[in-house]
Every structure is written in structure tokens, then in C-alpha cells.
Amino acid sequence: MALYALGDLHLNFQTKDKSMDRFGDVWIDHEKKAKRNIEAAISPEDTLVLTGDHSWGRNLNECREDLEFIAALPGRKILLRGNHDMFWPANKTEKLNSLFEGRLLFLQNNYYAYKDYALVGTKGATFEGPFYIGNNGNVVWDEEMKRRSDKLVRREEKRLRTSFEKAAEDGYKKFIMFLHYPPTSIIETESVFTRIAEEYHVDQVVYSHCHGVSRFDDSIRGMNNGIFYSLVSGDYRDFKPKKILD
Fold it and tell me: Tens of pLDDT along 71-106?
């Protein structure tokens, strides 16, 4: 029995115009690679958390084959909402859990147990620009976009706190925290998400979303203030799930 994580499958079985092949060799036949690697690593008793961007489908009908692909993988599958998961409106998590009962679990405004840990999480949000370095060396950015970003961060903060609070109310004291977006942007050393992680003394923070060698260092990796941070983007991991806990 072990806990694994992997992000950004970006499946497109019914949306052929969204092929990821154009983003480099690592993405060619990536769904076959992911299936092979997951089946090699994960047993029926294991738990796999998929940290968002599961499907390019814009609604449940367009991502039906993608979700069936995920459901057929071994282990207990817990899905986090990513920025491209248009099939998953924020207010439809309970509906998805009902539709896929016994096959897939959807993590938002709730939590799931793994041994004596609570698995908590939300999509998250980070300000990704546009910003640039001005002549005086200061970071300059689009103020309106920053306001919109701050609004999203506050919304995701609320969802994350709901996840933690429900777990704490049920007596959990040990947490693994999952995000889709990285916990900090490239111009931050901390954020509301890192502060919440420290407030609840989480053991690990696991996130994805960062693609391409030039972006893998966008946020925290490794030990930081007593918490271990892991990037599990599909292309970073070469689509091999990362073991989080035994």
C-alpha cells in the first residue's frame, strides 16, 4: 500500500486537435507512456492522486473516453481540478463524485484519508504575468491582471481552508497537501498557500502545472521551512508517478 502522485495527463482521446505532440518528444504517445508507467508502479491497493489537467474535453461528453482511461488504471484514483479541466465546474464536485462513485474520487472542498493522513487540496492559483523587469530593476506587471489573480487566489484559499477544516473536524492531525498550480509564482518566496501549509504543519506539498525545462524551477522544490515540496508535472516526471508515502 503506497501513495503516488502525477499531474497533467492532458488526455485528448475525443479532442484530436489538442494533441500535445507539438510540445516535444516527451509528449509523443504520452498517454501510452503514462499507462505503462502507472501500471508498472501501482497496485490495486495503492492510491494515485492526479493533480489536474486530466482532459482537454470541454464538457463531460467530450472527456468521457479520457475519464474512462483514468478509471481503468490500477489503484484508487483521486483527481484534483486543473486550470484546463473545463468538464469540472467548481460547483459540480459532488455531482462528479456521484457519477463516478466507486471508480474515481474528486478532491475539492473535501478530503480523503490515506492511513492516518488527510489528503487535502485545491486547484490553487498563481500570478503568471504578464510582468517584466523595468529599467530600475523592479518587477512591473499588469495591474488589472494582478487584481483578477488576487481574486482567484482568495477563492482558492477559501476552498483549501475548507478542505483542511473538514479533515481537522474529523480528527486528522497529519496532512498531505495537493495543488495543481505551483504554491508560489516566480516572483514569490512565499504565498497564502505556503503559509496555510505551515499553519497546519503539513508533511508535504505536491503540485504540477509547470511544463518544460525552463519552467521546472518556477516554484519551491525540496525541503522548505520543514515541509517537502514536490513537482509532479507529467513531462517533468516523464509520466512516472512519484511515490509520496509508503
Answer: 999 999 999 999 999 999 999 999 999 999 999 999
Question: Which residues have CB under 8 Å from 232's CB, separation 6+?
Answer: 5, 6, 7, 51, 206, 207, 208, 241, 242
137 burial (CB, 10 Å; 0-12 / 13-18 / 19+) is: exposed
| CA within 13 Å, CB half, 145 | 9
Cα(51)–Cα(94) distance, rounded to whole angstroms?
18
How far apart (Å, rounded) are the C-alpha atoms in residues 121 and 229? 14
User: Facing residues of 3 across strands?
Assistant: 47, 245
Q: Which residues pair with 105 in a beta bridge?
A: 78
| Sign of the alpha-carbon dihedral angle for 92, 94, 77, 121 | positive
Identity of the amino acid at 11: L
pLDDT in tens, 96-143: 999 999 999 999 999 999 999 999 999 999 887 766 667 787 777 788
Q: How many CB atoms lie within 10 A of CB 115?
A: 10
**Cα distances (Å, whole numbers) of residue 148 to 85, 125, 137, 186:** 19, 11, 24, 18
State the greatest distance between any 2 C-alpha atoms of the chain, in Å, as a whole number. 57
